[in-house]
Amino acid sequence: MNAAYELANIPPQAYRVSEAGPAGKRIVVGYGFWVFLLSDFVMFAALFAAYTVLARATAGGPSGAELFNQAAVAIETACLLLSSFTCGLMSVAADSRRRGAFYAAALVTFMLGAAFLGLEVREFSEMIAAGAGPQRSAFLSAFFALVGCHGAHVAIGLIWLALMMVQVAARGFVANVERRLLCFALFWHALDIVWVWLFTVVYLMGVRA
Amino acid sequence: MSEITYDHAPGDAQANDAPSTVRMHFLGLALAIVLTATSFWTANTSLLWAPGVALGLAVLAIAQMGIHLVFFLHIGSGPDNTNNILALAFGVLIVFLVVAGSAWIMTDLAENMMAGPAMHMPMGH
Fold first, then answer.
1. Given A59, A181, B31, B73, which is the most exposed site by the fewest CB atoms within 10 A?
2. ipTM higher than threshold 0.85
3. C-alpha dihedral sign at A53, A56, A62, A64
4. Whole-number Cα distances in Å, B77 to A75, A126, B69, B86, B102
5. Which pTM was predicted?
């Protein structure tokens, strides 16, 4: 029973991750995209910081309590949360290579995301029509920058999702399409996390203040 | 040597079978709905002590963020997830520094810029 024998008989599961050699491409790509998303969170943090500092700087114009429509925000929240859920189902369908389920989940995700964006555009246009555009006060500039930046992310996500449906249709579930689907799912779920903070800090706290 | 476990990609399901992953997403959705409904109720009720509502909303948002990370993004606490968790922890640190630091500095600045009657410098000298 020498040491070399003992080492040779360690079950494979006991090897540490660092001894397993370089990670696969899916793990490296996923991790890289995860780091990008975290840097995106840092950018949103700067916009959130600007908003919280300027939330009361209404310059005699309308405040959040006067402008925000909670019912519309609740519907937007429901759309985005459900689309995050169907995006999860889409990942499961892609992992198990079920095309029908994948297209169904992707389509529902797209429609819910589009509904969210439509409601947000309507809210923005109503505010601008009522004279509460981004140039009215520092509060409204910060509001449009923060919520608009999230909306722009959702719009980019919708384009990305449409492209992914086309790629799956044209090329099937090949390795690089699967990696892009992994990144898209991360992106979409991350947008929902940003929205959780948005409806909490901007809308719910804004209605109270 | 095929059984060596690699790191875990963020967003990849921990379980390899689809039904348990689907169950996880349903559980996450249910918890997120409960937390969202509680947030909207908290913001609109007059039952709760008003100054504590903002803190309550922040706690609910942190809880919901955790639900999303665990059930939707599959960021777990296993040894194969160490890199993802470490990156997340760094991100949270920077986000906290930016938001809390800005709020702290700007509140302090606003207080110091407030011209009280004794400190008021007459204009137009």
1. A59
2. no
3. positive
4. 33, 45, 11, 10, 31
5. 0.86
